[in-house]
Amino acid sequence: MAKVKKIPMRTCVVTKEVCPKKELIRIAATKEGVVSIDLNGKAPGRGAYLKLNKDVILLAKKNKALDKKLEVLVPDQIYEDLLKLIHES
């Protein structure tokens, strides 16, 4: 019998939807407060997941969902970079 590979699931901090990790993008914050977009999901620090969707990203910015989850001030540049990622994909 073939071993069933478990799909890692993560929750979007805005929509609270549980999705496969591959469908979400991770934003990481280090103890020093450095915030980055973690494309491989392996960056050190606290992570928060977002759906790669324009409305979700804009809502996250508006209601400061990432700031609360990561306990740091997320710079606007991060949201701009996330929006660029959507246009590229």
Q: Topology of this structure?
A:
Layout (H helix, E strand, L loop, with lengths): L8 E3 L6 E3 L3 E6 L5 E4 L7 E6 L2 H10 L1 H6 L5 H13 L1
Antiparallel strand pairs: 1-2, 3-4, 3-5
Helix pairs in contact: 1-3
Secondary-structure class: alpha+beta
CATH topology: Hypothetical Cytosolic Protein, Chain: A
Rounded to the nearest angstrom, the radius of gyration is 13 Å
- Helix content range of the residues, please? 25-40%
Strand order of the largest sheet: 4-3-5
By CATH, the superfamily comes out as YlxR-like
Question: Low-confidence spans: pLDDT under 50, at least 5 residues?
Answer: none
Q: Biggest sheet, open or closed, and with what strands and sense?
A: 3 strands, antiparallel
Span from first to last CA?
37 Å
Textual characterization of the structure:
The chain has 89 residues and is of the alpha+beta class. It has a single domain, classed as Hypothetical Cytosolic Protein, Chain: A, CATH 3.30.1230.10. It is built from three helices and five strands, in the order E-E-E-E-E-H-H-H. The chain has helices at residues 54-63, 65-70, 76-88, and strands at 9-11, 18-20, 24-29, 35-38, 46-51. The strands form two sheets. It has a three-stranded antiparallel beta sheet with strand order 4-3-5. Strands 1-2 form a two-stranded antiparallel ribbon. Strand 3 (24-29) and strand 4 (35-38) form a beta hairpin. Helix 1 runs antiparallel to helix 3. The longest helix is centred in the last third of the chain and has 13 residues, at 76-88. It is globular. The model has no long low-confidence stretch (mean pLDDT 94).
